[in-house]
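User: Structure please.
Assistant: Input sequence and predicted structure:
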Amino acid sequence: MSLETLQFVLDGLMRRYRERVPDVGRVISLMKREGLISRHEDIENDHIAFRTMGVPQLGLQSFEKIFLNLGYKRRDSYSFEEKKLNAFWYSPPSPQFPRIFVSELRVPELSEEAQRIIRSYTDEVATDPVEQLDRNDGVAIDAFLHQPLWRMPTLSNYLRLAEESEYASWVIYNRYYLNHFTISVHNLPAPFNTVENFNTLLETNEIRLNSAGGKMKISGDGLLIQSSTVAEMVNAQFDDGNGGIVAHSISGSYVEFAERRVLPEFQSLPADQVAREHRRDGFETSNADKIFESTYSEQTRQK
């Protein structure tokens, strides 16, 4: 396991993500203008997230091998009953790297038609592709995470999946594309070191936030507070079903913001001595459930 390889992979993910998600540049420019950071490298990336299809040769059990080999450790599991999703989070080999959150769609719980559509694409991947991947080669990993896994979907299949699961339609088009990265606001200068105040700054500058479940998603213990932008719309190309190409606007990726408060047993620590291990770790099902909806049409059509 090489930390240099991991850094190369993360850099590749973030480079493409910044190019595709204009809100990233807008937020970073705003933070610089307000004197919160001097350069984008000053941002602490709390976590990044990926979505997968839960079929035998893909899904969590396949995808996680990439990052387990790079030193990550699997931690807590989560279940999202209404959205038919499973998820795990993974802790990094060193504190300078982000946590990783990976979810998968429980495909067998969908309608027979939706399952048939999904498998018509995922069956093109005959075996677990990660088994053939050199997981010690940063260039190979970077290429894999940004390559198509199956043929271009038809617009009719995309729209049919979206009727039943907007998560499914997102993955059928975006595959392993980075779903979001997360700015740790608790380490920013006051008063913008809380999600509440940071949200106000964003909205004052006309950056729209996901309102599902409220703009601030707060864990039961009150120690994890999250918010997110609404996903950027991207002009996507689909197979028109007749050998041609048709364009359609779909949701892409978004930016998340997290405030991890100091655990009760460390409240007496001076602020300059508080490190990552002194703050609330992990994730919260109720928070994540609503963050998923940053790519859902109920949010994106408000833009």
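DSSP finds ten helices and ten strands in the chain.
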